Amino acid sequence: MNENLKIKKLYALSSENRKFSFSVPLKNKIRIGRRDYVVQLKSDEKYGTYILWKNRKYPVEIVRSRQNKYEILFNDISYTFTVETPFSLQRMKVINSTKGVNEQESLKAPMPGKIIDVLVREGSSVLRGEPVVILEAMKMQNEIQSPVNGKVIKVSTKAGCNVMKDDVLIVIKVE
Amino acid sequence: MDLSGKSYRTFIERQEALKKQFSEKQAEKQHSKGKLTAHERISLVFDSGSFEEIDAFVTPADQPVEFGKVDRTYGDGVIVGHGKVNGRLVFAYAQDFTIMGGSLGVVHAKKIAKIQEMALKMGSPIIGLMDSGGARIQEGVASLSGYATIFQNIIHSSGIIPQISVVMGPAAGGAVYSPALTDFVFMTSHTSYMFVTGPNVVKEVLNEEVTSEQLGGAEIHARKSGVAHMIYDDEENTILALKKFLSYLPSNNVENPPMVIDDGATPDINEKLRDIIPDDPNKAYDVKDVINLIIDKNSFFETSELFAGNIVTGFGRLKGKTIGIVANQPKVLAGVLDIDSSTKGARFIRFCDAFNIPILTLADVPGFLPGIDQEHAGIIRHGAKMLFAYSEATVPKITVILRKAYGGAFIVMNSKNLGGDFSFAWPTAEIAVMGPDGAVAILYRKELAESKNPAELKKELVKKYRDKIANPFIADECGYIDEVIDPAVTRKKIVSAFNALSNKWVKVPARKHGNMPL
Asked: What's the mean pLDDT in B365-382?
């Protein structure tokens, strides 16, 4: 019906916002920067999936994938990136231009319990997914992770405190 | 062929008029909001060239009373039809926001109702791609009756064909109940909203300032309300995920789920499974690591991922066959059962049961969440849903107890006596009426009160309890579980158990329907 939608090109956007484009279906030649490289993606029983480049095998494994986000292990180094289509890139621009930026993120206790440890101090930088507080509840130690990259601007709890559900534990300034 | 005859001329003119109706300008308008047009969405969903549209030339109904303008366009703002998705027949309707805001008029509703009835008759899944401003005010009460017919059709088809809603724009007022009644709801972040009353009304009635995004954006419905099961960053990803999702489901309640060829890439015996459970019973782990090592590699499709993370639900494949997975997640809220996780689990189990999808349960549950909050909000009746759903399900049901299985929660998580077909336990399992600390405090209250060193005594008693009672061996010896297994062979055991259950047949007493606590 609409041939324009046939995707011929996809982009891989790395976590550092670097962009690589590749053609669909995948060809053996890929372009990085200004140079073309001849690589082959292959798999067999002995090595699993690997990339063949200059007669050498580089094993690659998808560690985790969620929608268009991938975490891969290549040569024992982990990389994260998203796969975007021309339209989704355009959409991203539209949304980023209209979306207000949420500047602060308050971390709240997900359930009543006791704080075992606070792993950050005011002023510490945190990365998304980094544990910041250990909360013991239901006789289990729960890691409470930072939902964003940013800087801790307030710590309103300390080890040994009992907290109720939705008590604010930490305030992070989004960066 | 000679097409110059009079009847052909009209035929061609109409075709051209329809083509003209969908101008570049309209498409541009949708694109500028980061949205695709209805046609583009349809062409993404269906295999290339397989979509057959019906009723493309219907026109809006006459207004009973002249009030506001209705565009006399072909199709009345909705595309309906059928086609192939990964080679399988699927019916769909897509609302077109560029025509009168995708508003639902009488004819618009009739088209949807028609395709719903066809889908039911053919026993094929139906997908609704929604992008609509709501009922068409100009057509008055007639458009409301249209909604009612759509709802009625969804309810009639419920449990017979999979019905999936993909909300890609606004859905407000009565319109929200159409997705709500279907089996699964997909939403696209930032551009889709669902609410019963919009921000304007909220402001008027309650004097509360709230944006559409805060009130009923995809994030809110995926995390807080649980209305949306799957959300994605953009429409292309939403549709790709939808297509993948469909590959797990049978076309109707008589068929078995589709099978894919097992590539043999997943080892049947995997020693990594032995190392997942931490030695310290108070330490958490990610149950998804266990799931991914048991099922076929990369086959896990999680549903309601962001809502009630303390229970994990989703589809996966075992030797190419679809199974439903329900697992407690120790990493989130210690994996307790609370109101949200019970309703999430129960609804998933009922879907699996309706569509012949066997259920694998991985249990590691410390119990139900205590507290005023939960009790007053009705954890009793909500927790009962899970119990009801498990016990009622007649599909093959297998449980593996990974670690904690205490009290009522042990019963709920598909225990043997609740109708579980096979019940396995890892050697790390702790099966008892309650956890060591609680049990010791009750059983030795007097001794502890009289003791000179209560902490020391308690520690000793807890250790004794853990050794003597909180293990899988007593339950094994009594036959409450079938086998204590080496974690490494879990996949092998489960595959063989599901194979043994492939002809499972349960006679259910005749009744109109059970009365599930809702």
From this structure: 92
C-alpha span between B218 and B231 (Å, rounded): 7
Say if CB B136 and CB B175 are below 8 A apart. Answer: no
CB-closest option in B40, B191, B282 to A140:
B282
**Model pLDDT for residues B302-333, shown as the tens digit of each residue:** 999 999 999 999 999 999 999 999 999 999 88
User: Is B64's pLDDT higher than 80?
Assistant: no
Check residues B124 and A175 and name the one with the higher pLDDT: B124
Taking alpha carbons only, the member of B73, B142, B85, B144 closest to residue B119 is B85
Closest listed residue to residue B327, CA positions, set B297, B295, B281, B354: B295
In this predicted structure, the answer to whether residue B342 has a pLDDT above a threshold of 80 is yes
What pLDDT is recorded for position B470? 85
pLDDT-derived band at B467 (thresholds 50, 70, 90) equals confident
Q: Which domains does chain A have, with CATH numbers?
A: 3-98 (no CATH), 104-174 (2.40.50.100)
B284 closest CB neighbour out of A6, A112, A142:
A142
Q: Can B81 be counted among the known catalytic residues? A: no
Kindly list the structural domains of chain B, giving each domain's residue range(s) and its CATH number in brackets, ordered by start.
Answer: 26-246 (3.90.226.10), 271-434+470-500 (3.90.226.10), 436-469 (no CATH)
Distant-in-sequence, close-in-space partners of B334: CB < 8 Å, separation ≥ 6 = A111, A137, A138, A139, A140, A142, B284, B310, B366
Residues of A with Cβ-Cβ distance to B49 under 8 angstroms: 1
Pair B159, B182: CB distance under 8 Å:
no
pTM, entire model: 0.90
Decide if B39 touches A, using CB distance below 8 A: yes
Contacts of B209 in chain A (CB under 8 A): none
Note if B371 is an active site residue.
no
Nearest CA in chain A to B33: A94
- Please answer yes or no on whether B282 and A110 come within 8 Å at the CB atom: no
